[in-house]
Structures are given as structure tokens and as C-alpha cells.
Amino acid sequence: MVHQALQLLAVRIRHLSEQITALKKQITLTIRALNPDLLKGFGVGPDSAAALLIAAGENHNRLTSEASFAALCGASPVEHSSGKSRHRRLNRGGNRQANAALYRIVLTRLRREERTQHYLERRSTEGKTKREIIRCLKRYVAREIYRYIRAVSLPQPAPGTG
């Protein structure tokens, strides 16, 4: 009985894995058709690129600058203070999926890109916390992604849809 149940689960897992692979290929083809350079960014995979393109496409009229895209993704700094100390924290607004995509890109770069690792070391010696460094890196990645997105004109929404 247990053997049968495990066998059914294995078949289901294999089937779902095949579906995931097919969908990921379709997403990659769609992204390459819309913005082929976006996937060339270090750490930008199909899932992250899709989330960022969706955020930009839904709000294409709001994308006037790198700062507006960073705010749209929730990666813009917000000043806050507590008594004498002044700090910046991450904007809690914006598109949460786009923010999560930026976070995944930053984590990938922290693990695998030497330039980003050196940046982390340098900013750590300056007294920044890892959380503050990640906030800065997300803003940097947002700037980079914005340049990729603006290099290709965004598709216009159909009349009456938004």
C-alpha cells in the first residue's frame, strides 16, 4: 500500500516537473520576444525577468526615471529617524513581486558575482549592515533593469483595459 502511494507520488512529481519545465521555456521565449537583453543581466532568470516586466508593463506610464521604477518596485530608500540617528529603510510600498525579483537577483549576485561580493565587503567595513547593503544593491539592480526595460518600447495596453 505504501509502495503504491509512493509510486503515485513519484509519477505526479515527474508530471509536474515536466509542466514546470515547459512553462519556464514558454516564459523564457516570451521574455526574449519582448526584451531579449533583459536575461543577459547577471542573476536575472526568467521568473525574475517576468515579474519585473509585468510590473513595468502594468505601469508603463509611471516609468519616467530610474527613481520611479525603483519606487514602483519598492526599492527606493525612505528616510526615517529615531532621535539623533538618521537612517534609510526600504520602501514597503510598490509591487511586492517585483521587489522579490530584485531580492532574488541581489542574492544570486552576492553568491556568485565577485564584484558584488567585493562591494559587500567594502560596505561592511564602512559599518553598514547586510540589510542596508542589500537595500543599496536592490536600488542598483533596479537602475540596471530600468535601462534594459527602457531600451525596448513596452507594449501598449489594449483600449479599455487600463
UniProtKB/TrEMBL annotation:
Q: Which InterPro entries match?
A: Transpos_IS110 (IPR047650), Transposase_20 (IPR003346)
Q: Which domain of life is it from?
A: Bacteria
Ranges for domain Transposase IS116/IS110/IS902 C-terminal: 42-119
Protein name, as recorded: Transposase IS116/IS110/IS902 C-terminal domain-containing protein
